[in-house]
Amino acid sequence: MSEYQIRNGIVLEEILGRYLLISTEVARDKCVYIKAVEPLVAFYWEMMEQGLSISDMADQASKVFKGVERDVLIGDIKDLIAEMKEYGYLLKDDEIE
Predict the structure, then answer these.
(1) Please, are residues 37 and 19 in contact by the beta-carbon 8 Å criterion?
(2) 77 Cβ neighbours under 8 A, 6+ residues apart
(3) Whose CB among 14, 18, 27, 76 lies 3.0–4.6 Å from 23's, allowing a Cys bridge?
(4) What is the structure's pLDDT at 4?
């Protein structure tokens, strides 16, 4: 089973320097239409769009956030995934095929 899966119809857009997760018509009944996110969330979201594993995301993040322990990065990524599942932008475990 995958560690996470982005819900179909969710896109990340940068508009006027702000990052927004936008649910298109196919996803609107599952999550908020527009959610502003911090640049750090956008950083991780872009890696999720590439399908990187949590481990690979932590490796990439460690190159940017030097001095942060890998275990801390993994914990932060897992927390973000759990939060995005609650918001509906990522599929919950029982929705993943």
Answers:
(1) yes
(2) 44, 54, 57, 58, 61
(3) 27
(4) 95
Strand partners, 20: 13, 36
Say how far apart CA 82 and CA 93 lie, in whole Å: 10
pTM of the complete model: 0.91
Q: Provide the percentage of residues in the chain whose pLDDT is more than 90.
A: 86
Question: Could you tell me if 4 and 80 are in contact, meaning their C-beta atoms sit under 8 angstroms apart?
Answer: no
Side chain identity at residue 91, one-letter code? L
Q: Which ranges in the chain belong to alpha helices (H)? A: 39-49, 54-64, 70-87
Please name the residues in contact with 95: beta carbons below 8 A apart, sequence gap of 6 or more: 5
Q: What is the pLDDT of residues 13-39, one digit of tens each?
A: 999 999 999 999 889 899 989 999 999
Q: How far is CA 83 from the centre of its chain?
A: 9
Q: Which DSSP category does 94 fall into? A: G
More confident residue, 96 or 27: 27
